[in-house]
Amino acid sequence: MHASTQPHAYVSFLRGINVGGHRKIPMAALRELCQQLGLFKAQTYIQSGNLVFQSALSANECSVLLEQAILQAFDFEVPVITFSKIDFEKVLSEQPFGTTELVHVHLTLLAKETAVKLPLDTLDLRQNKVIQKAGVIYLYCPDGYSNCKVTNEWIERKLACKASTRNLKTLHHLQSMLESCS
Fold it and tell me: At 5, is the secondary structure helix, strand, or coil?
């Protein structure tokens, strides 16, 4: 996909930064890095690697650019998953569990669409519900995500692709940020 001339709003998810004191990236440094890369109007939300910005590049080009720049600037690899505003809004609109318990609904966002199905029949899901679509896994975890066996790491192993999980409350906030970034 080639870059267009008009900037588009994007949301990127940086996988596994600022967790347990490891792979630290200050959000101010990330916003500065975006400015240096020509990613405009960069905004971050909380310390877990949520980034909203504008660019004329494609979503995939933005992910690659950010991954390479983070490796150079911070000397460690960070998978980056980027969605256009339109694609992100589609993912949110298809969320099947309603919006009453935002902290119990999680979305695992995949770096690529896949036809591979998760082997859910091998797990005791208890009260958890899992719905897989091509580029996202929707999780309902009434006992908390930390008690769910369908973890980000498990999904990455089973689907052989990068993934990053966020709760619906965070994703709704990012959707609001995308509106102001457009």
Answer: coil
Please state, in angstroms and rounded to a whole number, the distance separating the CA atoms of residues 94 and 86: 12
The contacts of residue 73 (CB under 8 Å, 6+ apart) are 29, 33
Cα 152 versus chain centre, distance: 11
- pLDDT (tens, 9 = 90+) of the chain, 182 residues, equals 444 567 899 999 999 887 777 789 999 999 999 999 999 999 999 988 899 999 999 999 999 999 999 999 999 999 999 999 999 999 999 999 986 678 899 999 999 988 899 998 888 888 899 999 989 999 999 999 998 999 999 999 999 999 999 999 999 999 999 998 87
Sign of the C-alpha dihedral, residues 168, 107, 53, 33? positive
Between CA 132 and CA 173 the distance in angstroms is 23
Pairwise CA distance, residues 74 & 68, whole Å: 10
